[in-house]
Design a protein that fits this description.
Mean pLDDT: 81
Structural class: alpha+beta
Strand content: 35-45%
Distance between the termini: 24 Å
Shape: globular
Number of strands: 19
Radius of gyration: 20 Å
Oligomer: single chain
Number of helices: 7
Low-confidence stretches: 1-21, 302-340
C-alpha cells in the first residue's frame, strides 16, 4: 500500500468496547449566544431529531493514552433543547418568505490528539447531516441537504463540556450560513411536496431498512440514514473531479446549482465510498444481510510500551465516531511506532446504521 497521501495510509481501528444502554458522561447542546450577531434569510420553525437511534452516543472522549477510560458524549433530547434555545433567538431568523424545518439525520463527534510541528494537537471535530424543508401552508418540500464538518482546537479549554458545546454550536452556526448562501445564490432543486402532518408523523417510529446489496442507487448520500433508506440526495447536477480516483486519492464534488463541500457517501457504478477526511472516500460494501462494512481493514493494537513512549505521542491519533483509533499518521511516525511493537490483524469493520459507529462483526 502506497503512503504518498493520507488517504493511502492503512486505516487502523481499535475496538474499545460496545455498550448496550448509555448514560452519557457529557451532554452536547448549543451554547449561549450561538447565533448572536448573525442574520439569516429564513425563519427556522423547528428542528426535528431524525436520527435512527438518538439514545446512542455521538462519540467518545478519553482521559489517558491507553484509552481505557472512555467517556461518552450524547443527548437524546438534543432537538427539544435546541428548539427552546431557538425560540429565544428569533431575531436572528427574520425572513418569513422562507419558513424552514430542519431535520437532524446524523451527528458525530471525533477527538483528534497527537503532536504536531507547533506542539500538542487536541482538536474536536463535529459532523452534522441536515435536511432543510420549506413549509408553505400545510405542505413542505425538501430544498437542501448537507453533510457539514467543523473542527477546532480545544487544547486551551479546560472544561470538556465547554469545548464540546463550543464546536457543536459553531458547526450549527456555519451550517446555517451555507444554507443561507444556498438560498441567496441558487434556486431550490425540484422535489415532491409532502403533507406536513404526514411528514411530522414519519419521525415517530423507526423506518424499515430498504437498502440491500442488490438495489443500491447511484448518487450522493448526505447521511448514514440516507444509505439505510437507499435514498440518495436531491442533487443530480454535480460533477466529481475524477471518479477513477475514488478510494485512491482525494476528489472534489462540484455543482453549479448547489453548495456542496462533501457528501457522507458516493455511489458510483454500483460501488459505495464513505467519506473519511480531507476529501478522501474509502470504499465500503454491503453484505447479503444488508450490513454496511469496510472489508479487510488492517487493525493495529499498540503495545503498552509503545503507548507510553514518546514515539507514540508523535502519531496523529483520531478517535473516529464511537470508539475506534484511526491511525492516519505520517510515514515517519508509522516507522517509529512499528519499532516499538504492534500486533496487526485483518478483519471487516461494520458501520452502524443508527449512528455511523464502527464495529467488528
Amino acid at each position: 500500500m502506497k503512503t504518498k497521501h493520507l488517504g493511502h495510509l492503512t486505516l487502523m481501528f481499535i475496538l474499545l468496547c460496545q455498550m448496550g444502554a448509555f448514560a452519557f458522561d457529557y451532554s452536547v447542546s448549543l451554547k449561549d449566544g450561538t447565533f448572536e450577531g448573525m442574520r439569516y434569510n429564513f425563519t427556522l420553525l423547528k428542528i426535528i431529531d431524525g436520527r435512527l437511534d438518538k439514545t446512542k452516543p455521538i462519540g467518545n472522549l478519553h482521559s489517558n493514552l491507553s484509552f481505557s477510560d472512555k467517556e461518552t458524549v450524547g443527548n437524546d433530547s438534543l432537538c427539544d433543547q435546541m428548539n427552546i434555545f431557538l425560540n429565544k433567538s428569533k431575531a436572528n431568523f427574520l425572513d418569513t418568505s422562507n419558513r424552514i424545518i430542519v431535520v437532524l439525520n446524523q451527528l458525530n463527534l471525533r477527538l483528534i490528539e497527537g503532536m504536531g510541528i507547533e506542539g500538542k494537537i487536541q482538536d474536536i471535530e463535529i459532523g452534522v447531516s441536515l435536511d432543510y424543508y420549506k413549509v408553505t401552508g400545510n405542505k413542505c418540500v425538501l430544498i437542501y441537504q448537507q453533510y457539514f464538518k467543523k473542527k477546532e482546537s480545544v487544547k486551551f479549554i479546560a472544561k470538556k463540556s465547554k469545548a464540546i458545546n463550543l464546536v457543536f454550536s459553531d458547526a450549527m452556526m456555519f451550517a446555517f450560513v451555507d444554507f443561507k448562501n444556498q438560498l441567496r445564490v441558487y434556486k431550490p432543486v425540484p422535489a415532491p411536496e409532502l403533507d406536513l402532518a404526514t411528514f411530522s408523523k414519519s419521525f415517530t417510529s423507526r423506518p424499515t431498512q430498504i437498502v440491500t446489496n442488490q438495489n443500491l442507487k447511484e448518487g450522493l448520500y448526505f447521511s448514514i440514514k440516507d444509505i439505510y433508506l437507499n435514498n440518495p440526495g436531491l442533487l443530480t447536477d454535480y460533477n466529481i473531479s475524477d471518479t477513477s480516483k475514488l478510494g485512491i486519492a482525494p476528489i472534489a464534488i462540484k455543482s453549479k446549482t448547489y453548495i456542496v463541500d462533501r457528501a457522507y457517501a458516493i455511489v458510483s457504478s454500483k460501488r459505495i465510498f464513505i467519506y473519511i477526511s480531507d476529501n478522501f472516500y474509502k470504499e465500503a460494501d454491503i453484505d447479503g444481510e444488508g450490513k454496511l462494512f469496510f472489508p479487510n481493514v488492517t487493525s493495529t493494537s499498540v503495545s503498552k510500551e509503545a503507548r507510553s513512549g514518546s514515539t507514540a505521542v508523535g502519531i496523529a491519533r483520531a478517535i473516529l465516531p464511537l470508539g475506534f483509533l484511526g491511525g492516519l499518521a505520517s510515514s515517519s511516525a508509522q516507522s517509529s511506532i512499528k519499532k516499538s511493537g504492534t500486533t496487526t490483524t485483518i478483519s471487516d469493520v461494520f458501520i452502524d446504521y443508527d449512528t455511523g459507529d464502527l464495529t467488528y462483526k
